[in-house]
Design goal:
alpha+beta; 35% helix; 26% strand; Beta-Lactamase; 6 strands; globular; six-stranded antiparallel β-sheet
């Protein structure tokens, strides 16, 4: 079995432990939804100052809510709308230090103040996005973003 990293651990060790845990719980499983569910849980419980972590899956037309941890969320997001839809449309990571400054931000949880969205691409095809929110302005460092992008890479390799 596995255990979640302790949040009090040194940040670099914590990030490595989170990534290793995601690798471990997904290595023998090929079901995308199962892997996304575990990854959402790992991030939610291991990352400090995170109030939502989860995934939106692209259905060919729009993003549809997938596995997540946190308060209930928006169910459908059009491409190009909000941070998630914009990241999906542009197929690049978006780091938003203050969501109130992002034009068209969708406030599913009014407590969220900063956000990172990483597109999930497999074989050149948009699968969805990873979305992580925090109630803290400017919460996400470059190392956090790199970790989230590595988690997506692991998930897309399964």
């Amino acid at each position: 079995m596995f255990s979640l990293p302790d949040r009090s651990t040194d940040l670099q060790i914590l990030r490595e432990s989170i990534l290793q845990t995601v690798r471990h719980v997904t290595e023998a499983e090929h079901d995308l939804v199962a892997n996304l569910a575990n990854a959402a849980s790992i991030m939610y419980h291991a990352l400090a100052d995170v109030n939502w972590s989860g995934f939106y899956l692209f259905d060919g037309t729009e993003l549809v809510l997938g596995p997540f941890h946190g308060k209930p969320a928006c169910i459908r997001i059009a491409l190009g709308r909000g941070v998630c839809g914009t990241a999906a449309l542009e197929r690049r990571t978006f780091v938003v230090p203050d969501v109130e400054a992002f034009p068209g931000h969708i406030a599913c949880d009014v407590a969220s103040r900063s956000e990172v969205v990483v597109p999930m691409i497999r074989a050149g095809v948009l699968v969805g996005v990873l979305d992580v929110d925090s109630p803290v302005v400017d919460r996400f460092s470059a190392d956090d973003v790199r970790l989230l992008e590595e988690i997506v890479a692991v998930l897309m390799s399964r």
